UniProtKB/TrEMBL annotation:
EC number in record: 3.4.21.89
Annotated membrane topology: Single-pass type II membrane protein
Protein name: Signal peptidase I
A single cellular component GO annotation: membrane
Gene this protein is translated from: lepB
Entry keyword annotation includes Hydrolase: yes
Residue ranges occupied by any Peptidase S26 domain in the UniProt entry: 98-309
Pfam families: Peptidase_S26
Active site: 128, 183
Subcellular location: Membrane
Keyword terms of this UniProt record: Hydrolase, Membrane, Protease, Transmembrane, Transmembrane helix
Naturally occurring in which organism (per UniProt): Polaromonas hydrogenivorans
UniProt record similarity statement: Belongs to the peptidase S26 family.
Length: 321
């Protein structure tokens, strides 16, 4: 078993290394699920076979020691060296290949359950959600807010809340579902979303947009115009760049593209049933539904709600809208 376990562990390490160096496209959810299954099998084998076998060996050793002492006592020998304690310790000790599999199972399954059904951590890789979320913010995502889903396949098995306008949502990027994206829900099924001349309109009603003091981006060392927008009674901040045109350049040929009308002023889209229209708060620096289309309901991962750490700025810790 030790050689088989060495091969299994080497496979996990090899996959992780290949993922790290970009040789393969990794899937952490699948990897964690597989690790849970493999260590779970070892844990069951340890509990119901290997540990009982070691206990039997210890019991046999103890019985042999008692019999030996009895035989020596018949011969008038009362004092003998007793090394059974050390031998029992060696016999009952878990071998390395069980320590690195069955021994890790309780920790792995707790992480798996927490990450799959309760909260999952994410790191913000880009500035598309500035000023709400900054690059390198470490956030928590509520995995059950929009319903309970099976891990890996992301199949919803229990309903909860539906996404609402203004929610900050993590989802699987439609053109490449292995990637997770984070944007704000702008339009829900049935909405007509218009983003023309950098002004957002939902179902013919322009959203209130109040000017705020300019936002200074420490990474780019630039100021950007900042506004407060209100969508469905939820207010949040956004940025606009006067140097960027309103025209949406390079939109993909996505599913339901016929629901969208592009012009030099921007885009107007009718959100199909079971789909959502997403936009980044950094409006002129966000690759979102204006470019690659609608997010289907089955791609939803969870609702982002809390920054739990930013090592470069501890003041970032806290909830956000």
């Amino acid at each position: 078993m030790s050689s088989i376990t060495a091969v299994v562990l080497a496979a996990f390490v090899g996959y992780g290394a290949a993922w790290y160096f970009g040789v393969v496209e990794g899937n952490f959810s699948a990897l964690l699920f597989l690790a849970t299954v493999v260590t779970g099998i070892y844990w069951l084998a340890e509990r119901f076979y290997f540990l009982p076998q070691r206990r039997k060996a210890v019991a046999a050793l103890e019985a042999n020691a008692v019999n030996r002492q009895a035989e020596l006592a018949k011969m008038g020998i009362s004092q003998v060296d007793d090394n059974t304690a050390e031998a029992k310790s060696r016999l009952i000790m878990q071998p390395w290949w069980l320590d690195w599999t069955a021994g890790l199972f309780p920790v792995i399954i707790i992480v798996f359950l927490l990450r799959s059904f309760l909260f999952e951590p994410f790191k913000i890789p880009s500035g598309s959600m500035i000023p709400t979320l900054l690059v390198n913010d470490l956030i928590l995502v509520n995995k059950f807010h929009y319903g309970v889903r099976l891990p890996v396949i992301n199949l919803k098995v229990l309903d909860n809340h539906s996404p609402e306008r203004g929610d900050v949502m993590v989802f699987r990027y439609p053109p490449k579902p292995s990637l997770d994206y984070i944007k704000r829900v702008v339009g829900i099924p049935g909405d007509e979303v218009a983003y023309l001349n950098k002004k957002l309109t939902i179902n013919g009603k322009p959203l209130p947009k109040t000017p705020l003091p300019d936002f200074f981006d420490a990474d780019s060392m630039r100021y950007a115009k900042q506004f407060e927008e209100t969508n469905a009674e939820r207010s949040y901040r956004l940025l606009n760049d006067d140097e960027r045109p309103s025209f949406i350049a390079g939109a993909d040929n996505f599913q339901f593209r016929e629901n969208c009308r592009y012009s030099t002023e921007g885009v107007v889209c009718k959100v199909p049933e079971g789909h959502y229209f997403m936009m980044g708060d950094n409006r002129d620096n966000s690759l979102d539904s204006r470019y690659w289309g609608f997010v289907p309901e089955q791609n939803i991962v969870g609702k982002a709600f809390f920054v739990w750490m930013n090592f470069g700025n501890l003041k970032r810790i806290g909830s956000f809208d």
